[in-house]
Design a protein that fits this description.
Number of helices: 11
Radius of gyration: 19 Å
CATH architecture of the largest domain: Alpha-Beta Complex
Structural class: alpha/beta
Largest sheet: 9 strands, mixed
Shape: globular
């Protein structure tokens, strides 16, 4: 088996159907299996998979396990030389998976490979990045960042000074479409389940490159469309909380030991203030839209990530 594709889904039945259609188009010279992990969806996703794609293996979680743990459930059932973690809100272009496997086969020191991701309108998605820094935290998606949109901290974090047209080793690639070599999984394990939502991909790439080390590579010859945030956009306040919680967990796990002692107490305070600011902005905008009749009441809870 060349590649095992794991798709974690939560309430994106229509998008999942398109994703599976794109996978099951003719894939010459590729032995592939597809596993769909449904994270307690309520929109008939599991029934759609059973009805429309019986060749896919379906795993239905009775409760939500989070992004990392949900994907990890399927790993022991895979047989491929490579495992591709793929979001349900993606569309794989013809030949993309074959090209990824051939690239990794030709460069056996590549442990993790990420394709070029495009937004729905065909524009580039910054899916490979440098590791997060304090500067990026202060200037990305914050009032400071809006005041200084071309600041070097956010530009460097997103690698915007590069055209993304050539293969390149990077710090990390997006978990929306992340292919990992079987040997790497055997060596470092799957996702760290302490990260319920966000930063699992950053942590996985960190462990692959620091523990082994393996190369983490961006490969633009393979193209996948990613309709970003179709699940997480349903619960932006909770999403913001989980994002900042994961930021702190990543800092604590990988950065805290090298941070000067006087600075360490300031990090959680800064992350907390950033989270409160973003959640407040979401709630204010939400109620303004409600008052104008532009928004329906949101569902409570967070079931998964896509």
């Amino acid at each position: 088996m060349d590649i095992s594709v794991i798709i974690l889904n939560w309430n994106t039945a229509a998008l999942l159907e398109k994703c599976l259609h794109s996978l099951y188009c003719p894939q010459p010279d590729l032995a592939m299996e597809v596993l769909v992990v449904d994270n307690a969806s309520e929109d008939g996703s599991a029934a759609m998979v059973r009805r429309r794609f019986p060749q896919a293996r379906l795993i239905v979680n009775k409760r939500n396990l989070g992004f990392g743990a949900g994907n990890n459930v399927a790993i022991p059932q895979t047989r491929g030389r490579y495992v591709l973690f793929l979001n349900s809100d993606t569309v794989v272009t013809p030949g993309a998976l074959v090209t990824m496997v051939r690239c990794a086969d030709s460069q056996p020191d590549i442990g993790i490979l990420g394709p070029k991701l495009l937004n729905s309108d065909g524009s580039l998605q910054y899916s490979c990045r440098h590791y997060p820094t304090l500067g990026a935290g202060f200037f990305r998606n914050t009032p400071l960042g809006r005041l200084f949109p071309k600041n070097r901290f956010a530009t460097d974090y997103l690698m915007q000074d590069w055209d993304h047209t050539t293969q390149r080793d990077v710090d990390w690639v997006s978990g929306a479409a992340l292919m990992i070599r079987r040997e790497v999984l055997d060596q470092i394990g799957g996702f760290d389940e302490d990260f319920y939502f966000y930063c699992e991909d950053v942590d996985l790439c960190w462990r692959a490159s620091h523990i082994a080390p393996w190369r983490v590579t961006y490969f633009p010859d393979a193209v996948i469309y990613h309709h970003i945030g179709k699940s997480s956009d349903k619960v932006p306040t909770r999403m913001t909380y989980e994002f900042h919680r994961s930021m702190y967990l990543f800092y604590k796990k990988h950065y805290a030991a090298s941070t000067p002692l006087p600075v360490r107490p300031l990090i959680p305070v800064g992350i907390g203030m950033r989270a409160v600011g973003q959640m407040t902005r979401y709630r204010v905008n939400y109620w303004l839209r409600r008052l104008r009749g532009q928004e329906r009441p949101r569902r409570k809870g967070l079931k998964g990530k896509s």
